[in-house]
Write a structure and sequence with these properties.
Order of helices and strands: HHHHHH
Number of strands: 0
Shape: globular
Number of helices: 6
Mean pLDDT: 79
Protein name: DUF3775 domain-containing protein
Strand content: under 5%
Pfam family, one: DUF3775
Largest sheet: none
Low-confidence stretches: 33-47, 56-64
Organism: Chelativorans salis
InterPro entries: DUF3775
């Protein structure tokens, strides 16, 4: 592992916030993975004479709600441009797109990419939780 870079900047985004987002990202990833059992990805088999015999009694069917993704998206939406840029730069550094010494460049590039779809972009990263933690460690936060 590389030695953390000596910081010449102060983060706008608190490391505890980044760690919270990393935990939520891991929880979201775990929920998605639990949904796919043995590679069957929601396979449904019907026999030739299948018909819908499910009767509704007028009550809404109960569904277990997982608010983790909604909470993650709300937390991202609450970030200002500086915080969102730093978060994205941390993820990129953790993923290896930038070295910690390239922090100013990573933040500048991230600032150009930050928009209303940031949460979706971050959630598309399969190892986001790990990359956020790795990025924090790399920049010494």
């Amino acid at each position: 592992m590389k030695k953390p870079v000596e910081k010449e900047w102060e983060l706008s985004l608190g490391p505890d916030t980044v760690r919270l987002l990393a935990e939520k990202a891991r929880a979201i990833s775990a929920a998605v993975n639990d949904d796919y059992d043995d590679g069957k990805e929601h396979e449904v088999e019907f026999s030739g004479d299948a018909s819908d015999r499910h009767n509704h009694d007028g009550l809404a069917e109960e569904k277990e709600e997982n608010l983790t993704e909604e909470e993650f998206r709300e937390l991202i939406a609450d970030l200002n441009v500086d915080e969102a840029s730093e978060l994205l730069a941390i993820a990129w550094i953790g993923r290896g797109d930038y070295d910690a010494q390239e922090w100013p460049d990573a933040v500048a590039d991230a600032r150009q990419r930050v928009n209303s779809r940031l949460a979706g972009y971050l959630l598309s990263m399969p190892m986001l939780g790990d990359w956020l933690e790795d990025g924090l460690a790399a920049i010494g936060a």
